Amino acid sequence: MESLKSFHDHLRNSQSRAKKLTETGLALNAIFAGEGTRLKREDEASSLRVAHRAIVEQLQRLKEIEVSISHGHSQTNLILFLGELAVTAIISEGKRLSAITDYLLRGPTDRQQPFGLVVVCIGPGGLPDDAEGVSISQLARESGRPQPEIMSKLRDDGYLLFTEEVFSLLIDRLIVDVREGKLRLPVSREKLVEITGLNKRKLRAKIIEVK
User: Which end of the chain is flanked by fewer CB atoms within 10 Å, N or C?
Assistant: First the structure.
């Protein structure tokens, strides 16, 4: 009987240890699962930061190009202006002041072109993969169409347009939502429309408009 009691005690102890080990294993699994989820969220947040950095750098390059082209355009206009003055002076010295006045009145209209408008363009694929910097001014110059028309066409084709400032605010908001588990990547265009619509105060101007 004594040996039987000892056996039962040993069995109960073994069962108790097994239960504790099982509970510990389950707790560890939960911890590992939670850590895995946290790391995945951090990876997605990092993907958004990388995309943001790449697009901001792209916008900066586009702005520099626009400044360079605008400067070259101004130089060309100056040369043409001086050439016109020279020809006018040869034809009629007495009409020089009149020629300058006429040029100042009509020159900007004759030769004016858009420069400097660059935006973030997000396509139907959403973030972070379907986004890039775009020079609206370049598209307008190449097509001969006004900038608002270019932007309307892009929107009609399913693209969202953001200024760099608003895009940065949007990325900050998305990173917070991703880290809190409220959002998963990729963030679709429809979700972006929803988010920007619900947070107008924080984003201020969710989609840019050119007057």
Answer: C
pTM of the entire structure? 0.65
- For residue 137, how many other CB atoms are within 10 A of its CB? 22
d(CA 66, CA 10): 83
Phi, psi of 157 (to 5 degrees): -85, 5
Q: Within a domain: residue 36?
A: no
Residue 211: inside a domain = no
Cα separation, 19 vs 13, whole angstroms: 10
Q: Is residue 70 part of a domain?
A: yes
Angle formed by the axes of helices 2-91 and 164-179, to 10°? Answer: 180
Quick one: DSSP state of residue 92? -
The tens digit of pLDDT for each residue in 85-118 reads 444 444 455 444 444 445 444 444 444 678 999 9
**pLDDT digit string (tens) for 116-170?**
999 999 999 999 999 999 999 999 999 999 999 999 999 999 899 999 999 999 9
The answer to whether 66 and 135 are in contact (CB under 8 A) is yes
Q: How many domains does the chain have?
A: 1
Structure tokens at 7: 């056996």
In a domain, 101, yes or no: yes
- At residue 81, does pLDDT exceed 50? no
* Structural domain boundaries, residue 145: 2-29+44-203
**pLDDT digit string (tens) for 165-181?**
999 999 999 999 999 99
Decide if 96 contacts 85 (C-beta within 8 A): yes
